[in-house]
Description:
By secondary structure, the chain is of the alpha+beta class. It contains 4 helices and 14 strands. The protein has helices at 8-31, 125-128, 208-211, 226-239, and strands at residues 34-44, 47-48, 54-55, 63-78, 84-86, 91-95, 103-109, 113-121, 157-166, 172-180, 186-195, 199-207, 240-248, 254-259. Strands 3, 4, 5, 6, 8, 9, 10 and 11 form an 8-stranded antiparallel β-sheet that branches. Strands 1, 2, 7, 12, 13 and 14 form a 6-stranded mixed β-sheet that branches. A hairpin with a 5-residue loop joins strand 13 (240-248) and strand 14.
Amino acid sequence: MNSSTHSPTSRSHWVIWLSLVALVILAASHARAGDLKLVFTPLWNGQTVQINHWIPDAAPAGRSISELRFLISRPAFKRNDGSWHVVRDALACVDLASPDSSKTKVKGIPGEKFIAVRFDIGVPPIENGADLPELDSANPLNPATCPLKIQNQPGYTFLSLKGLWRQNDGQLGSFDYQLQGDPYLARIELPVEIDGSTSTEIEVNFDAGIALQDFDVSRMSEVKSHAALTTFSFNLRKAFQIKGAKQTDASGTVIRLTQN
Length: 260
């Protein structure tokens, strides 16, 4: 009777073959890495608005947002097990006054399934605590080109929200809310399903009415205090909201669309 046995040489061939298969699978997973585009839209208490356009029904008698800029850093993606994949070197300066600058892209997301995305409004302490004069001109933190660089001292404004408001007597007043300082960095977490092997676009609303809901525009000095900055940072966590998301395959065909 013949018996089927594997010689040491045969077993070695199997080990080599399985190792090659594992490498191919690993390479394929990296090749399928996708991109994420974040597209931001300004709102005022749920109403879509445009920068430098009057909001007639915004209390007390109307407002206009003239500037809404913020810095994004450390985007991350949450797995089902609760762990996060962090893209540490990704930075962006978002300006909602410009259609081209109201969006940003994160490249090279692992080909995995994720259940949430997060990002920080602000700059990590290391970058925020030093002048960075040697940066490439395309770097969002380049002091010569970044509109949120604090002048004549290290550091950056994390978010700038400016505008006009009409007083009860018809006169115009201005408001200017600046979020600055390492303790006030705001971490935004948004629940959304992402397949990292595809290209994903997420539409994110920023509701300025929610961001300013605890402030009296006639008392601008209050935003300078620790308590006010803490409140402002906390409000920002609620002001960013998912509007919708879509995923496309390599050919650009939409394979999944969600809308809130």
